[in-house]
Specification:
The chain is an all-alpha fold. It has helices at residues 2-20, 36-61, 71-93, 101-118. The chain starts with a helix and ends with a helix.
């Protein structure tokens, strides 16, 4: 169970950088003149590593492969990890974005979703 969660966290770190990290490229000296195609290929290259962790996480964690989670649980767990990683990423790299009360309330509802998905 712990290995699945750790692999999902690592995969989501790569995914977040692939999906949103490129938004900071223009602020970096080397990224001023990158075109969309270059940014897509860089993001795709980063996303490759996301898959290197996501696929094993799902295989190890899936109950039909000997893991503790059903498919619903894996998906909701992955979504909560994604939003947690995204929140940390945004607070660190996009300081102009604020974390507001409505975001917190939405996350509380997601935590409730995890509770209900895992409830027997």
């Amino acid at each position: 169970m712990l290995l699945t969660i750790v692999l999902l966290i690592i995969s989501n770190i790569f995914m977040t950088f692939a999906w949103y990290g490129h938004l900071k490229f223009k602020q970096m000296e080397w990224g001023h003149n990158l075109g969309l195609i270059a940014v897509i290929f860089i993001s795709w290259g980063i996303a490759f590593f996301e898959y290197c962790f996501q696929v094993p996480a799902n295989r190890i964690g899936f109950k039909d492969d000997g893991g503790p989670f059903n498919l619903w649980q894996l998906k909701v767990l992955q979504e909560v990890i994604t939003l947690t990683v995204f929140t940390i990423f945004t607070i660190i790299f996009f300081k102009e974005e604020s974390f507001r009360m409505n975001h917190l309330i939405g996350f509380i509802f997601l935590i409730l979703a995890v509770y209900f998905i895992f409830k027997k």
